[in-house]
Specification:
alpha/beta; TIM Barrel; seven-stranded mixed sheet
Length: 382
């Protein structure tokens, strides 16, 4: 039985740390002190230890799109949880893109039942709630979202969409300019739901009114919103300089140029104001090819998904692929890359980030080997 992990580096701690374990659960983290080698300790040699990643925007996996979840999909959802755990993900928010109210209600009902019956198996990614990306989006910035199902942003419509499932909805992405009163945002915040701005043409003034009303997030920065402009900073510019607002972003090299990601991370103080998302679609975990997507089709090439008319729809790269891209591009250091995938998304939705109380099955080990950072599940080292 391993009693401790020595000479570890951990995000948020200075210098080397010693991690105490009891029954494979972290009980304490202390500064490393000189000590005699112990057969019950694993010397990590300065490698980094982190929690598993959290993906706040993932649209599907293994061929299942979350807006199409039905009661018969319990086994598939179980497989998705195990697949995502193997991809370094500890928790995720199934994301429902714009669809019919009937589909939203059906998916929320099934996901609610799955969350209530989750097993205690530590080797599975947990459903932490649901992200509703729509249907309250600007038609001009809807991207691949079907126009027919977009809804006006009113409190009444929000109530209709949430139905009886407001307790499992963690994030709602909306375009704030659709409701200048801010009442819908306040309604959501009163229910503990994080409001994220996206698929929007909001000006900086409109975005700031939304932040004043309680919005605290931006959905896939740069995508489906105006770019930064020196006379009208827009939604993104307002978010970058706003304390307490975090911007999600996709680091697949297709959604945003790496240079612009570098601008974003420097301007927003990296993991203090940003976090990684995958925005992965249902073919995540499947090979490139053509796949159904609601009533349409998407073509996946080299991990990038587009509608057949060329509209960018998403990616089939996992979240930690994005973290490794940031490292390969030299945009941030290892500590920042780890935080962007692990602690920052947790903080964005109010989850704890301490290692204490976590099973070793929830931890990742980051190693620099052959000139490149890679990760693996810590339990694979035992």
């Amino acid at each position: 039985m391993v009693s401790s992990l020595t000479h570890a580096r951990i995000v948020g701690y200075d210098g080397l740390q010693s991690i105490s374990l009891e029954n494979d659960v972290v009980t304490a983290v202390r500064p490393q002190t000189p000590s005699e080698p112990s057969p019950e300790a694993i010397d990590l040699g300065g490698d980094w230890i982190s929690l598993g990643a959290v993906d706040l925007q993932i649209n599907g996996s293994l061929g299942l799109a979350f807006p199409e979840v039905r009661p018969r999909h319990g086994e598939v959802l179980d497989k998705i949880g195990r697949f995502l755990w193997q991809a370094g993900i500890d928790g995720y928010l199934p994301t429902l893109v714009t669809t019919s109210l009937e589909n939203i209600a059906r998916s929320l009902s099934v996901l609610s039942e799955v969350m209530a019956s989750l097993s205690s198996n530590a080797r599975t990614a947990r459903i932490l709630g649901v992200h509703l990306e729509g249907p309250f989006l600007n038609r001009e910035k809807r991207g691949a979202h079907p126009e027919a199902f977009l809804q006006p942003l009113t409190v009444e419509n929000v109530e209709r969409v949430l139905g009886d499932f407001d307790e499992i909805v963690r994030i709602v992405t909306l375009a704030p300019e659709l409701d200048d009163s801010g009442k819908a945002i306040a309604f959501l915040r009163d229910r503990g739901i994080v409001v994220s701005l996206g698929h929007s043409l909001a000006t900086a003034a409109q975005a700031n009114r939304a932040f004043d009303a309680g919005a605290t997030m931006v959905t896939h920065a740069f995508n489906a919103m105006p770019g930064l402009h020196h006379r009208e900073p827009g939604l993104l510019g307002a978010a970058i300089v706003r304390s307490g607002v975090r911007c999600g972003f996709i680091a697949d090299g297709q959604h945003v140029c790496p240079t612009m990601l570098q601008v974003l991370l420097k301007a927003a103080e990296c993991d203090r104001g940003t976090f990684l998302v995958s925005d992965a679609l249902a073919p995540l975990g499947l090979p490139d090819g053509r796949y159904p997507w609601d009533t349409r089709e998407i073509e996946v090439t080299d991990g990038t998904a587009r509608l057949l008319d060329g509209t960018l729809a998403g990616t089939t790269r996992s979240l930690l692929d994005g973290a490794q891209n940031l490292l390969d591009w030299g945009i941030c250091d290892i500590q920042q890359a780890i935080a962007l995938a692990t602690t920052s998304p947790r903080q964005a939705i109010g989850l704890p980030v301490s290692l204490v109380g976590r099973s070793v099955q929830q931890l990742l080990r980051w190693q620099f080997r052959d000139g490149r950072w890679t990760w693996q599940r810590l339990v694979q080292c035992f």
